[in-house]
Amino acid sequence: MRKPRARWSSLADRIDAGTPADRDRTVDALRAFAILGVVLGHWLVTALSTANGGLSTTSPLSHMPWLAPVSWMLQTLAVFFLVGGHVAARGYASARECGMSYRIWVGQRLSRLFRPVAAVLTLWTVAAGGMLLGGAELSTVQTLLKLVLSPLWFLLVFAALTAATPLVARVNPLWPLAVVAGVDLWRFALGGPEWIGWVNVAAGWLVPYTLGVAWSRGAFARRAPAAVLVGAGAAGAAALVVWGGYPASMVGVPGASISNLNPPTLAAVAFGLAQCGLALLLREPLARAMRRPRAWAKVALANLSAMTIFLWHQTAMMAVTALGLLAPVDLPGLHTVPDSPYWIAARLLWLPAFAAALSVCWAAFRSYEQAERPQRSAATRTVADPRPTALPRLEPTEEISHA
Question: Once rounded to an integer, what is the mean pLDDT over residues 276-283?
Fold first, then answer.
């Protein structure tokens, strides 16, 4: 039997050889980074505690506010929207050149987004019904369902922006940024209604999305514009936190009066600008790293299962938490209140268990993301979703990323 390292090297070489020479591997690397940030963010700042009976959601950020800088590293959605706008704009431009209709183009992209969602909704509908029939408390079931379903808002916003690519491609990023600023001014300074903040769900994520569109047109060919984004975004976010009264955490904190994420605030959008600028500045180092077959293979495989990882990582965490309830005592870092550095250390030790549970979910449900599609011409396939090729047990023309 061949050694695992030799097998991995062979697989990496196959993936590298099967990737088109003109493939921008940096885009896939940034997407993989964004997904990893979302997963680790949820696993580290979301806790299920049994302190009040049943399972209730809490966060170490509620008990240890000094951990807020952790959220700066793990809130990576702006990078995902940046990449999404870049890929969608390029894909739509290529579709028009090849004579593909908008209806076919958007249908193909949205089907890849929502096909894996059906499996999540089906399983959790059955699971929720079973738990209620088995006598589980309604509040516990609601807590679990909220954790599973809340990330789906992201897909709805992403799908809407993808479908609107022909329109938003004409939008200057400064316009949605101005909308976010105006909404926050009305909401916080002028006493406007709270519901007006939800306008920023579209406007806030439209900012990095339109930056991605601008990237596809060569707007960031030089490093200077990206450096401006980093400087202006970081300075703006810092000023809003220090002097504007915005929370330091860039993710939602249970019990907090203001969330920077739900809905997005001007501070979160400014922070996202800095993230996008940094991502654009890192393109050259990432490109060099992605020329190494083993590094590229890891990124390519992560992109192949990006939606499966995103949709099932919360389920994996909850599965480990539920199995832990079989222990005679509450397990530190899993069921205990996250109110001390000891909880952080214990939580880090649980991450491999979460990853193992996620690998089980991946094995069970990745087929929904990698469903067989009818054979298409090379030109059509590139237009629909230009992705790297040649993975084992897949057709040589199979594609990798779905976002």
Answer: 96
